Amino acid sequence: MQNIIFCSYNPDLLPYKATEWSIGRDLKLAEDITVSQWSVVLAPTGIKSALPLWWWIKVYARSSLSIKFWLIVANSVGIIDADYRWEIKVELTSLNWEVKLEAWTRIAQLEICPYFQEWKAFPTETPKIEMIVDSEIYENFAENFPSDRGVGGFGSTAH
């Protein structure tokens, strides 16, 4: 079985569990951003992923995002498919005013999930999580971990 791969150009951006019992892994901003009221900004995380078949990632807002900044994840829950090879970005919307966030701010959590269809085989093994910090692998991630998805990036499966 293939491992779950997370890759970044900076070790401080890798998703991490705040405690042993945390379900989600925190995601940080890779650069400073400004979110204007009612606009949608694709917040960069500096993370790319490759997952085995029948695994996927859900991306949620951190609970403090709306309390501290009046920000929400615009699409409620982001979905990262196993074959997506581009940077994970979080769609943020401001509910009240213009918000400036600095790089390294924790903005979201990701959850790694098995995918189940009753007519397909369910994963029987839990893959190991491998963290890679290498700017060259990050830049050439789609070539290093090819998928059938093609050259499209964020939102590329829309028809």
Description:
There is one protein chain. The protein is mostly beta strands and 159 residues long. It has one domain: Deoxyuridine 5'-Triphosphate Nucleotidohydrolase, Chain A, CATH 2.70.40.10. 10% of the residues lie in helices and 35% in strands. It contains three helices and twelve strands. The strands form four sheets. It has a four-stranded antiparallel beta sheet. The longest helix has 7 residues, at 63-69. The protein is globular, with a radius of gyration of 16 Å. The two termini are 31 Å apart. 28% of the residues are buried. The mean pLDDT is 88.
Mean pLDDT: 88
Can you tell me the CATH topology? Answer: Deoxyuridine 5'-Triphosphate Nucleotidohydrolase, Chain A
Proportion of beta-strand residues: 35-45%
How would you sum up the global shape? Answer: globular
- State the share of residues found in helices, binned by percent: 10-25%
In whole angstroms, how far apart are the ends? 31 Å
Record field, number of beta strands? 12
Low-confidence blocks of residues: none
Query: Which class best fits the helix and strand makeup?
Result: mainly beta
Kindly give the count of domains.
Answer: 1
The biggest beta sheet reads: 4 strands, antiparallel
Write the layout of secondary structure elements.
Elements: E1 4-8, E2 25-28, E3 33-35, E4 40-44, E5 48-50, E6 55-61, H1 63-69, E7 71-73, E8 78-80, E9 89-94, E10 99-101, E11 106-114, E12 129-133, H2 135-139, H3 141-144
Parallel strand pairs: 1-12
Antiparallel strand pairs: 1-5, 2-11, 3-10, 4-9, 6-8, 6-11, 7-9
